[in-house]
């Protein structure tokens, strides 16, 4: 890469896959927490269930936001964080098949993290992460040049 890319063309090419991954992660986390309320936590007091659900959502949102901000900042290790988030949601939902849930609800709860992982591993998302890494290196070089003056 010779310089910073044009923002419009960069966003037009990579923004849909980036946001698609984020939305699939949001849906995966929300469906996992809501299904936990009717399966694993079904015998709990409703106020305790609400507290657990709220805490779980806060933790999941913090992990997801941190991972995606770090991806946008050009940190390659953050992809593993988002993939772990999606994999964790999938592994949390899969054992729920033993409960009498509507198959559409269970299927979509298992499908969201799988689609998110597929988008995260897509060629376009990998290209985007490579370009963001190059942009980070250009930014660090520009900062170093500025400090040298």
List keywords for this structure.
single chain, 149 residues, mainly alpha, 5 helices
Structure description:
With 149 residues, this protein is mainly α. It has helices spanning 7-38, 46-72, 78-93, 103-120, 123-148. The two termini are 24 Å apart. Helix content is 80%, strand content 0%. The chain has one domain (7-148).
Layout of helices and strands, plus pairs?
Blueprint lengths: L6 H32 L7 H27 L5 H16 L9 H18 L2 H26 L1
Helix pairs in contact: 1-2, 1-3, 1-4, 1-5, 2-3, 3-4
Quick structural gist:
The protein is mainly α and 149 residues long. The chain has helices spanning 7-38, 46-72, 78-93, 103-120, 123-148. The model has no long low-confidence stretch (mean pLDDT 93).
SS content category: mainly alpha
Beta content: under 5%
Average predicted confidence as pLDDT = 93
- SSE string: HHHHH
**What's the alpha carbon Rg, rounded to whole Å?**
19 Å
What is the straight-line distance between the termini?
A: 24 Å
List the total number of helices.
Answer: 5
